[in-house]
């Protein structure tokens, strides 16, 4: 294949989302056992529901009969039935029953694509397989999810912009001193600095060289087999109560090429009565202030042109942005080259 065609495939893969990754797709409370939930992930329509035992199922949102969306259907006995003609499909993608025809040859066949699911810390994650990694690797969770010493809240929002802009935003700490300069937590520190990138065992940290602990001064990205997330600390004034800085643990879901969904866990390392105070303060005083900051990010990213990356003039502050883009490029090349290798052998 010509390099030009390969380059286009790689760019398209970056733009639509990397395969072979675990992605958060919904809050746990959104997935119920009484009705299905239709979602879109990397441009593919999927449907989620809870079985009778509480287990979450995810299959392609398309009836194998005539292609009607299964998310319009009903749930019974742990399965999902199509509203159009009543065909019943299990969470493993097996056609359980075709009520309109006795002894239909499709009964018992696995003909709907099913996806692996895991659930942790109030969120549902699904694995989007790649040609090179069809079976999901064990998901590596942020350490904060596994520790009783951390307490937090999951915040999600749909942004009408490509997911790459959301990742760039997280890898760009300098914007905090400008875009969020009038906020409750990010009004402090210098507005001029240099940045550096340090390698870690599983990723990298981008940080300011002139200050730490004053503003959004650093962000760390972790990359594991099939998982990528970031975390950063936001300094809290004493008025925010006990627990020190607020940590944000972030994942970004590519919905399609024009929209994404951010999943941010806002967390503090607190226990006992301090934990109760933090949770009370967050719900009553702090949550609305944090939403204001998140809306500032959304508004400016949604207003940016889709093709802005072709006209950028990057400078030293953008070392983190450059590094996350290199990471996506490497992952996309791995996806595409494996697919082309299979195609060449067939």
From TrEMBL:
Transmembrane segments: none annotated. Keywords: 2Fe-2S, Iron, Iron-sulfur, Metal-binding, Oxidoreductase. This is Iron-sulfur cluster-binding protein, Rieske family. It comes from uncultured marine bacterium 560. InterPro entries: Cholesterol_7-desaturase, Rieske_2Fe-2S, Rieske_2Fe-2S_sf, VanA_C_cat. The keyword Cytoplasm does not apply. One of its GO terms (molecular function) is 2 iron, 2 sulfur cluster binding. The keyword Iron-sulfur applies. It comes from the Bacteria. Residues 22-126 form the Rieske domain. Pfam families: Rieske, VanA_C.
């Amino acid at each position: 294949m010509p390099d030009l065609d390969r380059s286009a495939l790689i760019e398209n893969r970056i733009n639509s989302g990397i395969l072979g990754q675990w992605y958060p797709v919904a809050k746990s409370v959104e997935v119920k056992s009484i009705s299905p939930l239709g979602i879109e992930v990397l441009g593919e329509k999927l449907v989620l529901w809870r079985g009778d035992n509480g287990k979450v199922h995810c299959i392609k949102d398309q009836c194998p009969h005539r292609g009607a969306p299964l998310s319009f259907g009903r749930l019974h006995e742990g399965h999902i039935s199509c509203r159009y003609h009543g065909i019943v499909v299990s969470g493993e993608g097996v056609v359980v029953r075709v009520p309109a025809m006795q002894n239909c040859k499709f009964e018992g066949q696995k003909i709907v694509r099913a996806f692996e699911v895991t659930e942790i810390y109030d969120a549902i994650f699904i694995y989007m397989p790649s040609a090179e990694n069809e079976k999901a690797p064990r998901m590596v969770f942020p350490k904060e999810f596994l520790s009783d010493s951390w307490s937090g809240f999951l915040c999600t929002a749909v942004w009408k912009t490509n997911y790459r802009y959301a990742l760039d935003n997280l890898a760009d700490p300098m914007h905090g001193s400008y875009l969020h300069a009038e906020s409750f937590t990010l009004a402090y520190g210098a507005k001029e600095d240099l940045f550096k990138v340090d390698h870690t065992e599983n990723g990298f940290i981008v940080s300011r060289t002139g200050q730490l602990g004053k503003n959004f001064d650093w962000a760390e990205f972790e990359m594991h087999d099939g998982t990528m997330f970031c975390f950063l600390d936001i300094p809290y004034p004493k008025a925010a109560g006990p627990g020190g800085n607020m940590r944000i643990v972030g994942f970004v879901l590519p919905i399609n090429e024009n929209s994404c969904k951010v999943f941010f866990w806002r967390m503090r390392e607190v226990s006992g009565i301090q934990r109760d105070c933090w949770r009370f303060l967050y719900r009553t005083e702090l949550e609305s202030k944090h939403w204001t900051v998140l809306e500032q990010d959304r508004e400016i990213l949604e207003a940016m042109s889709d093709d802005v990356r072709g006209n950028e003039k990057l400078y030293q502050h953008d070392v983190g942005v450059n590094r996350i883009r290199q990471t996506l490029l490497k992952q996309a090349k791995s996806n595409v080259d494996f697919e082309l290798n299979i195609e060449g052998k067939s």
